[in-house]
Design brief:
The protein is α/β, with parallel strands linked by helices and 285 residues long. Helix content is 43%, strand content 14%.
Length: 285
């Protein structure tokens, strides 16, 4: 029997000094997130949280792009498969139908997972290059700090699907509401420089300096005491929640699923007939 080639790991994990580096590893698909990657990310974050020697976590994407979003069309798309659920107690989606299936799945793998990761009690720094689109935004936004390279761009084109933004609706908290409306209404790319101007990212550096700049920032943060960092992170997150982030997101999640259900009722599919090519063109304009 020929030896089977081991499946490539969707996430790479490495500890260097006090910093855990979690790297999305599907560069051939611009790090599109399938469920296998989601659960591998969750395992990596859990491992980093559990390791007393890890003070800071870096989230990066291998290749030319941070993440082009959720997997809506690679050969390893696995949205229909069951996975061991970790973010909540909603039941398995894979043997359910319609809105019940979508709501259960997205509660777990999108909103639930992102909220879980946001609560990781150690600072997480996103290191972003190239595309950070739709579901990619969710990953960058759950991080505490964002270092972007000059070529990085951010976009949420899912309004083209008739849907009010991605499932983790942080838009009006990570940028001013009027800018969030422009970002969503146009679906156009926001450059790293513009993202810096509106306060969405912490640093913009040349592409060749991204890894070093992220490492320098991580090492500097890692000099702080562990509990001090954990409590400070919780303090700021609580302030964001008091500004309505948590409750606002729950409210929008209902609108998001109204849109999916409307699409399923009236269009070709819950994504409003938008396929990978259409979204890719929309997201790269
Ligand atoms: Zn959705």
């Amino acid at each position: 029997m020929p030896a089977e080639r081991p499946a490539p790991q969707p996430v790479h994990y490495e500890v260097r000094g006090p910093v855990a580096y979690v790297t999305m590893n599907r560069p051939e698909y611009r790090n599109a997130q399938n469920s296998a990657m989601t659960y591998a990310l969750d395992s990596a974050f859990y491992r980093a949280a559990d390791d007393a020697d890890v003070k800071v976590v870096v989230l990066a994407g291998a290749g030319e792009h941070f993440s082009a979003g959720h997997d809506i069309g690679t050969p390893e798309r696995d949205a229909h498969l069951p996975f061991e659920r970790r973010a909540g107690l909603w039941w398995d989606h894979s043997d359910k139908r319609g809105a019940e299936s979508r709501f259960a799945r997205e509660s777990e793998v999108y909103l639930g997972m992102c909220r879980r990761w946001r609560e990781l009690p150690k600072p997480v720094i996103a290191s972003v290059q190239g595309a950070c689109v739709a579901g990619g935004l969710m990953l960058a936004w759950v991080c505490d700090l964002i270092v972007a390279s000059e070529d990085a761009f951010f976009a949420d084109p899912v309004v083209r699907m008739g849907i009010p933004g991605v499932e983790y609706f942080a838009h009006p908290w990570v940028m001013p509401p009027r800018i969030a409306k422009e970002f969503l209404f146009t679906g156009e790319r926001m450059s790293a420089r513009r993202a810096y101007e509106v306060g969405m990212v912490n640093r913009v550096v040349p592409r060749g300096e991204l890894a070093a700049a992220t490492r320098d920032l991580a090492d500097r943060v890692a000099e702080m005491p562990r509990l001090g960092l954990a409590l400070t992170k919780r303090a700021v997150n609580q302030a964001e929640d008091l500004q309505g982030l948590h409750a606002g997101m729950d409210a929008v999640f209902g609108l998001h699923h109204l849109a999916h259900a409307h699409n399923a009722e009236t269009a070709a599919d819950p994504l409003g007939g938008m396929d990978v090519r259409a979204m890719k063109e929309a997201g790269t304009r």
